[in-house]
Amino acid sequence: MRHFFAALGYSLAGARRLWRETAVRHEAAGGAAMLLALLLLGASAAQLVAFGALFAVLVAVEAINTAIEIIADRLSPEWSEFARDAKDLGSFAAACIMVAHGLLLALVAWKAFS
Question: What is the pTM of this model?
């Protein structure tokens, strides 16, 4: 049980650190707006669950992206191609999840208006 609470503490510390990232706060605001739009469009329970799962994946990818950026900055405080590539790839991963969110919203809107 001690391990569980220690792991929970580490996760909460990670969440607090992640919240300091502007991108995550923007994504949270965008997620709230998208949830409202889905509700107004009459999204099904399955579509709302899909949104929640995608949002959880987005937060997880953003956490990994932030970790990559921290490590890249530590290993290469000056500009380097490997650090740029690592950061760009992390950003691309987050963008892919945002595209999936957009596709879900488009699907719900299409069904609502057709």
Answer: 0.91
